[in-house]
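Recap for those who missed Tuesday's class. We walked through two folding examples back to back. For each one, the amino acid string is listed first and its predicted structure tokens come directly after. Nothing is annotated here on purpose, so try labeling regions yourself before you check the end of the notes.
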Amino acid sequence: HTFVWDGSTVSGAAEPGTYTYEIEVQQPADGDSATYRSQYLRIIRAVDEYGGVIYDAEFYGYDDNGTPEDDSDDEYQYFIRYYALKDDHDTAAKEGTLTLYNWDMQPLRTWVVNDLYCDIHGWNDGLDATAQGLQHGLIVAVPISLLEASAEECPDDPVFRWVLHVKDDHAGLYRDHRERWALNLNQKSRRQKVWNFDCNTEDGDTLDRIAQFRQKYPWCGVNPYYGETCYQAEGYLAYAMGSQVATTVHDRLKRANVFFFHGHAGPGGLKCANDGAGEESYLLAATCGDPGCPVCDAPSVAVGDINLGQCKLAVLMGCHSGCTGVHGNLPERLLDRGVACVVGFNNTITYSSGAGGEEYTFARVFWDALCVPNDCEPKIVSEALREARDEVRRLHGDYAGYNSGVVIGTDLTIIPY
């Protein structure tokens, strides 16, 4: 049989998306009936802390699987938040799968629910159900290569869809003695556009203020270093890190659409965190060729020949980060590898701890101008730089070195993406 639906509901036209259905067949003579879907097991869509219905899967993190030098095994992690399984007989579902579909509704990969970790309960119990409804939130890792290969086939910003399928365990309650699948639940996610912040400052207020762009969806979790919630700019996912070694900073740079570093720097490089052995690490434009150079030794890392064409803007907020030294010129190297726009500083910039410091003022005004301008018209990078340095002078009496900021590459806006 073929059924046609015109997209109408009792409330008007249905929102675009994927929809599941129920079929019931009745025999008029004796009133007997059979159903296509489970009569006892239901998947309940959850609401967020503000009472809003959750329709989107959430970006959870990035995993290089312990091989920062190898992109082929890198994965994005998603949080399927949240769903509740409600069973009239207090019985767990018999089986379940989670399928990822591409923008054209072609299946990309399927996971067994019992193989996925539930972030709420701390183990793989995603099929457990109760009569009241038991809530779950699944963590699933997706190879980045799988998403990127599918996204390249789509001319627009692709939307991926996650569909949860669960089957009840009530074969004995149906006349044909077959279990039934519950009505499916779907969520969507988009191709990742990631903000990466690497702030080596010890000032949590500064990092928190930089990361908050007053948009409606928080990043899924807390900043792992300072414990602050990070908010995303429109169209992006915010991800903040603090005091990371150079290999991690390099790894994040490879995936960033907007990259921000706040910490010590010098001509040709950024000073990152010390490794576990206490050795200093640097992200360098290039190695200097001196086998005895302590800066070039591991755990330092050079930018290398990686493709950074995905990155629209890199802001290197450190002293002399725009200058040339024995390790080259970092902004020029990033530009050469495909970054569209780079901001560096050609002089010492003043750092003073606390929310009233010069660097805090600069970062607040700079990112506000780019992301949440008062007149709702996003600024180009040079305008944001000028507004920020002028505000430093107004509040602190001088430019504190921030007038040495330079923009190289394409002077652009970052919103919309």
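Example two. Treat it independently of the first, because the proteins are unrelated.
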Amino acid sequence: MHEHVDPVPPRGTPVLLSVVAPPGGWERGFRVAHDDPHRLVLEPVDDAAAVVVPEGAEACLCWPVPAGECLLPVRVRPAVPRGALLAVPVGPARVVQRRRYVRVREDLGVRVRLPGGSVLARGVDLSEAGLRCRLPASTPCSPGTRVRVSAKLVGFTLDAAGVVTHVAVPTSGRAAGVVVTVGIDLLLTEREADQVRRHVYAVQLRELAARRGGRHRW
């Protein structure tokens, strides 16, 4: 379940915008410049080159609140001045409290795209709020690192922005051949969250069938 909150972040709030757009989406930091509840003007927090956004692209705004992180599904389009975006909410804002979500063990291939390049990893477990995976110890990764992750799940390919929350290094240290476990908060749109939720349910059914010798008893 999600806790519903005020529909938009207040003016001046720093937000992370995750855009679902070809060729795989992107994420970037913005600040709310105008807090009309029906249309938000977002200005970039740095002077980087203006991003290219398809008209009506699906996206998700994320910002911290005392109870966790607030997610707001929006559609975006370019705005004035150059580099600014107009975001129109298309659903209710909700607070993500990650401990509420069902997490399943999942050994699957995951590509993690970091600021300096991408690396292949192995998934450990997954929920609609987060992912844990194992990366080579030499991977330059620390809490707060912005990443994108992609993985083939049941019926669809997940391709979403995320934020590294923790890096667990084995007691043997970062020796050659050692892997580290990385926790990633996923910043999903409502549609992506629903797809992951369905995948988690499918994994649960698969595990139940395995425990019962392949026989369902409903």
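Answers for example two:
The first strand starts at residue 3 and ends at 4.
The helical segments are 190-211.
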